[in-house]
Design goal:
By secondary structure, the protein is mainly α. It is about 75% helix and about 0% strand. It contains 19 helices and two strands. The chain has a two-stranded antiparallel sheet.
């Protein structure tokens, strides 16, 4: 971070690579997102939905992973076009304004919704602690939760972008291998699933009893509101906007911008393939084993219940395999989520006038403080509620409401802000509208079903 990624200058401009191999060298932000989404969404919420509804809601998972990418791309393009952080851009959209700094309503709404989000991460840190407690029963769950909080805080405390990216890539490779192997192994057991069962899940049915879990899963699987916002910061810290440089009315600037947008598009699409694969695998595991056994994960027994997806299929030895995989999956979410939240809230605090986000020294100090504050709140939430599945489900529902703000902002970025000659294709615009429409319809359908 010797060069501030949030400050654009002509000294840092660089042409985007044109070859596929050259583009691969500049991928990374999407992989951090992949590491972030797999814990609460895939291991906990997705398998719980599969256990609750069977194969019938498989479509929810696939739609959730696919439709949000267009919104994610819009936030990435906004970063490259303007070099602005998310809350700098949100502070410019229309609507009421409040507070000493006259901040936009979207900032205050986001801050209010966030008050419930420690429940979600508290559930995840509880999942990691339960996993470790099963491996080392002599240490209780709360002690492990505190130890994990300290470890993840230490890693993020001085962890700059490239450290976070490297750790995320390693974790992503581990949990992807873990899930693919698990599904492959399942097909050689009594719980093997058939093609007809999978096709049943593509009929767009939603049983009333599974509505709450489905909305939570839709909010958590794929990229949720938190991850879409975080993508902006990772694109900035990777250097996409800095390499493009500050806007200038020239063909050279537009060529650089289009080139880095293409790199960003590749990054987002490849990461979508990864987390969709992992999400689908975990759902099939839950539907094939837990649904048939009528076992719903809950409380501190959550990991024990989930481990039965393996032990009932392969024998006791598979429990250690599951514990290792679930630790990697959940810890990756904690690590990347904490790294993102320290930046998101430093930016939010800057827009509310509490710090100067664009002062490198103040920003680094705020990120360092939040790296310890957030894990502390997560452990407190776990001590208070003591039900990881419930905590993650509530977090997923809140994440869905955050998505509505994201949809509004994405459309505003596309149609109300200057495009600088970087107008999107018709295919992209159609994809963006489909993304927004599906998010709205899922929420509306869920509300009607609950009523």
């Amino acid at each position: 971070m010797q060069t501030d990624p949030y400050i654009l200058s002509m000294d840092s401009i660089k042409s985007a690579p044109t070859s596929l191999l050259g583009k691969f060298r500049y991928l990374g932000p999407g992989f951090i997102l992949s590491a972030s989404v797999v814990g609460s969404g895939e291991l906990i919420s997705t398998t719980t939905l599969g256990a609750k509804a069977g194969f019938v809601t498989f479509w929810v998972i696939l739609v959730s992973c696919a439709v949000k990418v267009a919104i994610q791309l819009e936030f990435g393009k906004q970063a490259i076009r303007t070099g602005e952080t998310v809350f700098t851009s949100l502070n410019k959209i229309g609507g009421p304004r409040f507070g000493k700094q006259n901040a936009n309503w979207s900032l205050w709404t986001w801050f209010f919704l966030w008050l419930f989000k420690p429940l979600q991460l508290g559930g995840i840190i509880g999942g990691v602690a339960i996993t470790l407690n099963m491996a080392f029963p002599s240490v209780n769950i709360i002690s492990f939760a505190i130890i994990v909080g300290i470890i993840v805080a230490t890693m993020v405390f001085k962890g700059y972008y490239f450290f976070i990216e490297k750790v995320s890539v390693v974790l992503m490779l581990l949990f992807t291998t873990f899930t693919v192997v698990a599904v492959f192994m399942l097909q050689y057991t009594d719980f093997a699933f058939t093609q007809s069962e999978v096709l049943e899940g593509l009929r767009f049915q939603l049983p009333p009893a599974a509505v709450g879990f489905a909305i939570a899963a839709f909010g958590l699987t794929g990229v949720g509101g938190d991850e879409i916002v975080a993508y902006n910061y990772w694109c900035l810290e990777k250097g996409y906007a800095r390499f493009t440089g500050p806007f200038e009315e020239s063909d050279e600037w537009r060529k650089r911008a289009r080139g880095w947008i293409k790199v960003m598009n590749l990054d987002a699409i490849l990461s979508m393939v990864v987390y969709t694969l992992v999400t689908a695998a975990f759902y099939l595991l839950g539907a094939a084993v837990l649904y048939k056994r009528r076992e719903i994960p809950g409380g501190f027994e959550m990991i024990e219940t989930l481990s039965k997806m393996y032990t009932h299929s392969f024998g006791p030895w598979a429990k250690d395999f599951f514990l290792f995989g679930s630790f990697v999956v959940l810890f990756s979410t904690l690590f990347s989520a904490l790294a993102a939240r320290t930046r998101i809230f430093s930016d939010l605090f800057g827009q509310l006038g509490w710090i100067d986000f664009f002062n490198l020294k103040q920003r680094k100090r705020t990120v360092a403080i939040l790296a310890w504050v957030f894990p502390f709140l997560w452990v407190i939430a776990l001590l208070w509620v003591k039900s990881p599945v419930f905590m993650v489900t509530i977090g997923g529902i809140i994440t869905f409401f955050m998505l509505l703000i994201i949809v509004y902002a994405g459309l505003h970025f596309r149609y109300k802000q200057k495009q600088f000659g970087l107008e999107s294709s018709k295919f992209y615009d159609i994809s963006l509208w489909m993304s927004c429409l599906v998010i709205f319809l899922v929420g509306f359908y869920g509300a009607i079903s609950l009523i």
